[in-house]
Amino acid sequence: MTETETKPLAVVTGASSGIGFELAKVFAENGFDLLVNAEDGRLGAAAEQLRITGAQVQPVPADLSSYDGVELKDMVMRDDGRMLITSSIASTMPGSFQAVYNASKSFLQSFAQALQNELKDTNITITSLMPGPTDTNFFHRAGMEDTHVGQAQKDDPAQVAKQGFDALMSGEGKIIAGSATTKVQGIASKVLPDKLKAATHRQMAEPGSGE
What we know:
Elements: E1 9-13, H1 18-29, E2 33-38, H2 43-51, E3 57-61, H3 73-78, E4 81-86, H4 99-118, E5 124-131, H5 138-141, H6 148-151, H7 157-170, E6 174-177, H8 180-189, H9 194-205
Parallel strand pairs: 1-2, 2-3, 4-5, 5-6
């Protein structure tokens, strides 16, 4: 790369830890500079770790839950860009004891697929990343450490991030990411009735089920 050439830029939200941090790391290791975002105080330390890869890293602490979040207008004008939306395998099942979370992930899944159709005549790629239970701080924040799923073995966030990155760069519409167990669960969700999936989710997420 000559001095006049610039690296591609990746914007990664939730990049202070977990899957977001691992995604930022994969992008950096694959030749991207980074703009990383999170709302917590760990973002600065995460940015320092990411700079070890040789990438230029600009941390932007902010809460992106407002209306002024991420828009696609610039991508559409350039007719170029890729977006990875982190949904979840939870989007495929009714979330007993986790009703709002699963419904929110179902929204993201529908949102991603709608954008794919709206932008089908452009060069913009929209990929939905659908991880299963992953070893992040999620279960602590959600107060689910006493549940069956909270105490069970979880997928490696680095593995999930790498599979998501590969799917994005390959132009795939969605990927169930993680271990073989998670991928089998994704296949089963396509055929099981919602009532059975809700009952199964109850066994995983009911408070005290891990005791």
